[in-house]
Design brief:
Blueprint lengths: L73 E6 L2 E6 L4 E7 L21
Antiparallel strand pairs: 1-2, 2-3
Length: 119
């Protein structure tokens, strides 16, 4: 898994407030507002629709519905304090989070326990 290229130096960014987010088990009820759990993808039809307008700005005509779908494996791997992701369906590489403050995190070696992750 190759590391993504940063568009900025993390150490130059301000330290932001942290918020505790509860871990909630995904069930039909708990994900209802966000999507659906799919147990048999070969039997599930995906409907692609334009995303809804939010607030004052309308969605531009002929946009917002061209995402489509791809199938592939999404890998996650810790390198030091940094959690990396790699999506083989789109050849994407990402930083998913850090177990230490991003400003002090090391990708060379683990500096703190991996008890939580900042996304």
């Amino acid at each position: 898994m190759s590391a993504p290229t940063y568009l900025f130096a993390v150490k130059d960014k301000p330290v932001l407030d942290l918020f505790e987010i509860p871990l909630i088990k995904a069930t039909e009820e708990s994900v209802r507002e966000y999507g659906r759990l799919v147990y048999r993808p070969d039997e599930f039809e995906i409907e692609i629709v334009q995303w809804p307008a939010q607030g004052w700005r309308a969605v531009d005509e002929d946009t917002g519905d061209a995402g489509g779908w791809v199938e592939g494996v999404f890998y996650c791997d810790w390198k030091g304090d940094v959690l990396y992701g790699s999506n083989n369906a789109v050849n994407g590489n990402y930083v998913l989070g850090w177990c230490a403050s991003p400003q002090t995190a090391s990708s060379e070696h683990q500096t703190v326990p991996r008890e939580r992750v900042s996304l």
